[in-house]
Amino acid sequence: EVFVNALEGSTQFSALFYETFDSNRGDVMMLYADDANLVWNGTPYNGKGEILNLFGTLPPSKHTVEVTAD
After folding, report:
1. How far apart are CA 17 and CA 24, in angstroms?
2. Residue 40 in 3-state DSSP?
3. How far apart are CA 5 and CA 59, in angstroms?
4. Quick check: helix, strand or coil at residue 43?
């Protein structure tokens, strides 16, 4: 049951994250702490402001999330 709950939670989070990332990247920042860190292609970004600036430079995207549990 713990595995099922973890799988459901991670599936819901992934769907929310990528749907928001694809449709309105500014809103995805609500999922990041103020002092979050991100490394993108080897370049570090520190804090929400730097991460948001990075996301603003990326081209439009469309993600499809598929979950399988073996």
Report:
1. 10
2. strand
3. 34
4. strand
Copy the structure tokens of residue 63: 């993600």
> Closest by alpha carbon to 63, among 17, 8, 9, 6?
17
Q: Does the pLDDT value for residue 57 go beyond 80?
A: yes
Quickly count: other Cβ atoms within 10 Å of residue 14's Cβ.
14
- Report whether 31 contacts 17 (CB < 8 A): yes
41: tokens are: 């292609």
Q: How confident is the model at residue 5 (pLDDT cuts 50, 70, 90)?
A: confident
Q: Residue 15 in contact with residue 65, Cβ under 8 Å?
A: yes
Under the banding of pLDDT at 50, 70 and 90, the label for residue 20 is very high
The residue written with tokens 């928001």 in the block is: 20
Token pair for residue 48?
């929400």
Task: Identify the H or E element spanning 6.
Answer: helix 2-23
